[in-house]
Amino acid sequence: MATPTHKTATAAHIRNFCIIAHIDHGKSTLADRMLQGTGVMNERNAREQTLDNMDLERERGITIKASAVSVDHVWNGQTYELNFIDTPGHVDFHYEVSRALAACEGAVLVVDATQGVEAQTVANLYKAVDADLELIPVINKIDLPSAQPEERAQQVEDVLGLDAADCIMTSAKSGVGVKELLDAICDRFPAPQGDPEAPLQALIFDAVYDDYRGVVVYFRIINGRMKRGDRILMMGAKRTFQVTELGKFRPQMVKVDDPFEAGDVGYMVAAIKTLGDVNIGDTITLDTARCDEALEGYEEPVPMVYCDFYPSGDTQFDELRDAIARLHVNDASYNYEPTNSEALGSGFRCGFLGMLHMDIIQERLEREGRVSVVQTAPTVTYEIDCIGKGGEREMIQITNPAELPDPSKVKAIREPIVAAEIITPTGSIGDIMKLCDSRRGVYKNQKFLADDRQILEYDLPLAEIIYDFFDKLKSITSGYGTMDYHVTGFKQDELVKMDVLVNGDAVEALSLIVHRSKAEQRGRHLLKKLKEQIDRHLFEIPLQAALGGKIIARETIKSVGKNVTAKCYGGDVSRKRKLLEKQKKGKDRMKRIGTVDIPQGAFMAVLDSGE
Amino acid sequence: MPDHSAQAQSLYLHLPFCFHKCHYCDFYSVVDNPGPKPGTAATDAQTPRPAAATDRQPAFTRALVAELEAAHRAAPGPGLRPRTVFAGGGTPTFLRPGLWDQLLASLHQAGTLEHTTEFTVEANPETVTADLMQRLAHGGVNRVSIGAQSFQKASLDALERWHRPESVRSAVDACRAAGITNLSLDLIFAIPGQTLAMLDDDLDRLLELEPTHLSTYGLTYEPQTPLTARLRVGRVTKVDEDTERAMYARVLERLEAAGFEHYEVSNWARATPDRRYRCAHNLAYWTNANWLGLGPGAASHHHGHRWRNAPNLTRYLAHWDQSEPTGPPPTEDHERLAPEDRIGERLMLGLRLSDGIEHNWIQANVPAGHRRAAAIDELVAIGMLERTATHLRLTRRGLFVADTVVAKLL
Ligand SMILES: Nc1nc2c(ncn2[C@@H]2O[C@H](COP(=O)(O)OP(=O)(O)O)[C@@H](O)[C@H]2O)c(=O)[nH]1
Ligand code: SF4
After folding, report:
1. What ipTM describes this predicted complex?
2. Cβ of A567 and B220 within 8 Å?
3. Considering only CB atoms, which chain A residues are within 8 Å of B341?
4. A69 and A10, same domain (yes or no)
5. Could you say which of 3.30.1490, 1.25.40, 1.10.10, 3.30.360 is the CATH number of the domain covering B339-407?
């Protein structure tokens, strides 16, 4: 760690900003270039892409955790402190993005000079506008032969309503335009406003877990002052801590001795043991001199997609429990609780912000926690309007079809609805609309984006897009379609629980909630998939899908016809025994329901919509 | 030589030479001097041909004799005194008659055959001659197992099995002329392209030959055989499962009607009250008796310890064909089973026999409450196993899926 320093700038010379872009348009590369331009980084660690510090992120090309880096830049003979606040790039992290934006005065909007405006460009722009940020549009990758900087600048004007003349042309690759961009940030973005004399109000926009320090909280002071030794209160979480260290990322952690004032961005360490204790968007104030009101916009994170993780292979339940708890310490974005399934044994029901989030957590569990898990098909949260135990009307939330009360008690089932914005090549518009219609989408709007691009707005049930919607979208548009969405509320529909019976026994882990109009088709397809997954047994196995006792689809798995190795003489004994043992081992890893062995893959068969 | 070669009640000799490699075969065999495909040239396989580049038959015979002598020295008392001897291959009848004489002489000299009641030699019909059979009979061989496999040219071609259908009859005649009347014939079914009608014809022709014993095999696609390679690339189509099942059922039905008792999954003996045509040597395998295997690739078993000689003629000769063998003989795949696993293996083997396994043995080895006991009950309940007064055995339904059934008991 570098030695403690004094602060370099007062509010008038601070610029807090973020970079927003569609995935792959060059946000990380440009950020690195800007750090280099200010002399913070050399070529070598530039390659490490400091602001994007997790393997997984790099692999998947997405940013999971926001962070902040402070650099100095000289413009017009004066030194400015630029605080670059990174925002998560994926659709599942809307709320975190909005909090990072709330810590900024300006946003650099990056558009790829070859690709032009995409779904997340639009979605991020709206968010920046909602957050009242000043904007600098940047057309990046102008070094590429297929770049069309002028056309893209015009598109920025036509579609986004920003002045084409304000666009800065850059190549993050070669460094062209980067100095101009840094100057523009000092010039065009406003200095933070805020009253250093007012009671402390600091916004938490991110937090990470560090093995040595515990939780490191990223914050922006809106009003007031904070210094080492202060006793602080997290207003939403209602917890107090003592600040033991304040500092900035330059890009290494550098302690700062001076108090932080309105406008400052930095990190804080306060002996916080787990990330579960810190909520993004929460307001920090002084415990001894509290502000009257917390900052606006704080929301409890609400998971929308749920699935179960069960230990598989050699992994034991205890190992899975430890791995989940350990990961949660440094990524509190998901929640979990123990669960039990007759089919899969003991495991955890986990809630996620979205599908990608779920995939990331599963991957991190397996990679960092070294466990192997079976994941059940994801489901969304449902609101159930029903008659409670005492006969009174009540509203409960369920995250698992198995929790659905007896049908006679259920008055209505409501499901989460998202507002989706899909950007598609004009040629694919008909097929995309067909896709949305088949997923019970409600058409909202269609906007022209460029000669060959359109924006489609649809309201869609979340449950209809957690399966294979993205894959379908990509294949219809040959990879060119993009989508952004956020949950807007719950809506009642004709939803029913479909049971799946294997050899006459209902298997809860296979049941699902479906729209009545689609039940039969889903049921038939699910049974076909199950039939592929379940081995033939010594007896015939009927598979049935049922709605409240009424069979709507059936399949039969024939019994084994002939399975006997012809010869078994002296030399064959060992080999044959090993062969059969292997078969048996395979069976042991399966889940036994009644007398039927069901492989773990069967539980994912539910995922495939079959459309 | 593992020292417990002692009280082996059975002796297996592996004679690894073939004149052609059949495409389904995964036995250890070598083709040093390839023979012409019978029927395509004027010669048959036993006709002397120009000396091959390599002729390892004499060296092999010396080596096998040396290994036998070592086994005698290692055995307690007078030496090896097996009750059954089985010469398999490879193609034992492709070993030249003069070399067979040497081998038989060595067995007699050591008294190996003193207590032997069953001495079987495997034969490829194309290599059976009256002369060889006389020498074998004279040397104590009293049973011959002939690889007939099929009588349809199309089927033999599909298997790349090189013999002419008509040579099966001449081989049978040659054996009988030499006084060997205990004759077993092998039959393969579910050959690519085979129909039920073709199988019926094969069965007719087998039965016409009036063997005392039959082995019937559903064709197995062994890994790393040319046939399996052809299957992978789609040049061969498997007989579908339903047809294969029907074929097995047809074999059962026809051979039972012809007076054969089905005493093991793939083996049949002409029914007699004293069961004398059952193969005593193979029964030793299925009852987990101790046996000693000599020759490259031969497997042995002694009280739960299994191993085999390395299937490598070069290494075999390097060790045994020297005046004073030094160092350990090339063996591999040593396996010492835990008592629990031996029980599973015994069940796996014993249930292949139509008699099944005695209740007494099961009571002693599968305690109530053990997972195997529960599995047995379940298998009885669904009609795969049945209990007779004295034994636990496969039902007719269970027989067709014997592997799935026994896998649950391992
Ligand atoms: N040719 C060229 N490639 C660039 C430029 N900026 C970024 N890239 C490449 O575009 C890809 C995506 O960049 P990255 O910074 O990871 O995008 P992010 O997802 O927005 O952070 C990477 O392969 C970069 O090397 C540029 O100005 N010119
Ligand atoms: S004759 Fe027998 S050992 Fe030789 S290749 Fe054919 S099947 Fe194999």
Report:
1. 0.86
2. yes
3. 577
4. yes
5. 1.10.10
